[in-house]
Amino acid sequence: MKNVFIDGSAGTTGLRIADRLKIRKDINLITLSEERRKDARARSEALNDSDIAFLCLPDEAALEAVSLIKNEKTRVIDTSTAHRTQKGWTYGFPELKGQKEKILSSKRIANPGCHASGFVALIKPLTDAGILDLDADLSCFSITGYSGGGKKMIAEYEDENRSPLLSAPRQYALTQEHKHLKEMSFVSGIKKSPVFCPVVADFYSGMEVTVSLCKDMYKGDIETLKQIYKEYYSEGSVFFSENPDEKGFLSAKKLSGTDDMEISVLGNNDRTLLVSRFDNLGKGASGSAVQNMNILLGVNETEGLIHGGI
Fold this sequence. Notes:
Blueprint: E1 2-7, H1 12-21, E2 27-30, H2 40-49, E3 52-55, H3 59-68, E4 75-78, E5 90-91, H4 99-104, E6 108-110, H5 114-129, E7 139-145, H6 150-157, E8 170-171, H7 181-188, E9 195-201, E10 207-214, H8 222-232, E11 238-240, E12 261-267, E13 271-278, H9 282-297
Helix pairs in contact: 1-9, 5-7, 5-8
């Protein structure tokens, strides 16, 4: 039985990971009392006593937590932004080509961001295949449920006296400086960050990420794209869907409550839409983290994950 510790278990992602692990019989979950949760000495002891440590913390706190780890056996899964493009850290998206093997042999795993997961899942197979112009001017539109904003935003949306503006979708990251941009371009292999338009809407969880392509951006046609995804995503929690729409619509809530990700290609040869749908709290956060833990433990990587959809 392996010892597992969640540093930052009071946050949205930490709570969901904890809920998943409490029912596992193959691990011992190390916990700290409310009084000791922020005590550096207690955290250090828990981190160094663990075989696997989840960091569910703000970036600066995650950096501090790593500095507290002296035990070489402790393997870290960091859900913050702090290490996703850092040397010595492995990007925790096991469905990417060759990535599962890298995760298995790594002691430092950077769990992907939610928006970034959807973008990377769409673009990395195309750069791996060598068909996408790496200098292409890409754009990415992403809609998410409000749980992606954490406890503060959840409370804001669920307040009975909330602003009426929250009843309609709200675009954000208006300065084009979103913290996921560096990760999106670095991992996918493109030379320019995409124009990124994230939107938060009045539903709890779910996510839909869309990248648009014109025919001069890549080699081949729409059928080429479909075939690449079919072959690329043949195992794990990511799958290709040939006919994903719901009577001409695509709902961002389709895979809410699951840990899967659906990839689809829509449109035509002149104007093509690449779409990924998943749960921002599932494959976009805690589900992905647990999947990475399973790989490190050497068990079925989908152990404890939820499949299906609405």
